[in-house]
Amino acid sequence: MLALHVQSAAVAVSATFFFIVLLYVIFLESFARRRLPKGLPTVGFGSGPFFASRASISQLLVTLNTVDQGYRQYGARQHAFVIPTPSFRPLVLLPQQYVQWLARQPESILDHEPVNYDRQSVKYFPFSFDFKKLQIAMKMSLTKGLNLTLDASQPHMYKCIQDAIDSGLGTDAEGCWKEVRLIQRVREIADNAVISVFLGSELSNDKAFRRLLHHFYYGLGILLEFVGLFPVGLLRLIVANSLYLYLMAVKKICITYYLRSVISKRIAQLDSRANDVDESSDFVVQCIRTVRKLEFPLGRDEATFISELLMFLVAVGGLSINSTLVACAVHIFGHEGQQQNIYSVLRQEAESIFKSDADWTSPNSLECLVNIDSCVRETGRLNPTLAFVLTKQVIPKDGIMLPDGSHVPHGTWVGVPAEAIHTDDSIYPDAHTFDALRFANMRVEGKPNRSLESSEPNDTYFFFSYGRAACRGRWFATRVIKLFLAYLILHYDIKPLQGDIKKYEIADTQFYDSTAEMVVRKRKLN
What we know:
Layout: H1 2-34, H2 51-73, E1 81-83, E2 91-93, H3 99-104, E3 110-111, H4 113-119, H5 131-143, H6 150-169, E4 178-181, H7 182-199, H8 201-204, H9 207-225, H10 234-272, H11 283-291, H12 302-333, H13 335-339, H14 342-353, H15 357-360, H16 363-367, H17 370-382, E5 388-394, E6 400-401, E7 407-408, E8 413-417, H18 418-422, H19 438-442, H20 474-491, E9 492-494, E10 503-506, E11 509-512, E12 517-522
């Protein structure tokens, strides 16, 4: 009798679970169909029962192929098109000719904030204050702090990068080669350099703090890149909230046991002798001064706000810089770099510029790194931070009209296929090939050539996004990347990588195989 009751209960639970799943699938299918624009061509949707759901789920593995197919069919012919996404929100992708139009639209027409909150999971960020306040403080810290002191802080940047590379790869100049994990070691070195630049040597030398901070910003990276891929509803809530709780715990430990004491000490120094503190090499002090100029109440104590601001800046900066450096290393030391002999070309350039320690601390030296800068820009072209940029949501209730007269309804997401434009042969000849000196060869002698520098976005180059959305920390990031590459190439011998490094993709996110190894040794320099 008991067995019969257990069996009946199991059948009831199974039936209930199946019914809930069926309702969820029907909800998702309806959610996707309601947001599918009617007057635009679609790519990747197919037909038949639950066509929107099947198309959305399949994009976890084929998003970039779908975008490439749609761009060749429609985008290259100056037509917008619609693709499915794993989040079940259809995305309207615009051709390159509409980029400036999209960038000019006011937030009352096309707003990026709803997209950020959904796709990048901003509403699950592990911060204890209003994220809008964090964004304002971050922008001010970069534009009125860091960017204004880049030249003065270069000696500090160089020392941080030098120490991070030498401690990560060794200083033994006796000719001994050693094998290291390429991706893992470059990331570790880049992370340590960024932590040191932003937070100072006291915290960057603390291994326990570094380990905690790495957990925080790789967790934040997962939140930014992957959680927004989950379909709306219960599944995303479970994953996002689990990650949120973990990140909140890590953040609290970082602030309570490490950051608060350092920041409180800086605050006390500023309060006691505000004019005697050197801001050029102390980003913590720059942040304190910036926060004190904000025109709104913090809602929390000053030290906590600044701690969370710094953790966010280190996380975003670290993720961007280390992913770019990894891609640069793969291209320079890999098969394509060998064919172009680019390692030797870049070393010759570095040797001709950095002849003394003073050259490493001079901003003029970095201006002369034309080939290394070209290599960084070309790496960014083939490895954009985001596959889609300028993604915004249609705000007017009656929708909007695209420049070609097509109607896009309220609530639809609209964006630009950055990677597809970056690999358009009509814009960049032989676009799928890594050409390290592509942008160096485009320069015209005697002209500024500012638009060809790695830090400068335009309507065909979106590594740092474009327009009002362009990254405000891009000058800092490119300076760190160029110093890093120049020091590594000049002071270390690195053997060519064996074989091609595998590149994986999940939806619109790509990453390299972390098991790849490189063989390196310290050079003997006179």
